[in-house]
Amino acid sequence: MPGDDGPGMRQFVLLLLPALVGLAGASGWLAAAEERDDTATGAVPARSVKAKPATQTCLSSGDLREAVAEKRVVEPVAAIRAARAAVPRADIVRANLCRRDEVLVYMLTALRKDGQFVHVMVDARSGQVSGQW
């Protein structure tokens, strides 16, 4: 499938599309992942620094289709490619299009071959990776 832009990739995206949105509790996975990482590394959690927490809500599948059709965001396959480039040889197991502080981002979870999860944030307008943890 890598490098395949043909029907196989489109079919993969269509199969992944329902998982992009509508997963119960998906809006809180970013904050939970950040908190877990901070706790594991001994870092001070963001909320104790009095920083304004990022507000995040994930879009419905209909809103995702509308945003792609109106060319407000790159297609999901572009976000998947960017995440794959950022985390080579990993499987993308979850993806959502979310509004984070009024900016649209794809939030993707990759499962590395060593069993570790890596979270990747892709700017939905440019298709560029904007964060990874």
Task: Describe what you observe in this structure.
- It is a single chain.
- The protein is α+β, with helices and mostly antiparallel strands and 133 residues long.
- It has one domain.
- It is built from four helices and five strands, in the order ααβααββββ.
- It is globular.
- The model is unreliable at 12-50 (pLDDT under 50).
Question: Quick summary of this structure?
Answer:
The protein is of the alpha+beta class. 35% of the residues lie in helices and 25% in strands.
Our measurement of the CA-to-CA distance between the termini, rounded to an integer number of angstroms, reads 25 Å
Number of strands: 5
Instruction: Provide the spatial order of strands within the biggest beta sheet.
Output: 1-2-3-4-5
Number of domains: 1
Broad structural category: alpha+beta
Shape: globular
Strand share of the residues? 15-25%
N to C succession of SSEs:
HHEHHEEEE
Classify the helix fraction into a percent range.
25-40%
Q: What is the alpha-carbon Rg in Å?
A: 15 Å
Quaternary form: single chain
The main sheet comes to:
5 strands, antiparallel
* Weakly predicted, low-confidence segments: 12-50
Secondary structure tally, helices: 4
How much is the average pLDDT?
A: 75
Using brief descriptors, characterize the structure shown.
single chain; 133 residues; alpha+beta
Topology:
Layout: H1 7-20, H2 29-41, E1 56-58, H3 61-69, H4 76-86, E2 91-100, E3 103-111, E4 117-123, E5 129-132
Antiparallel strand pairs: 1-2, 2-3, 3-4, 4-5
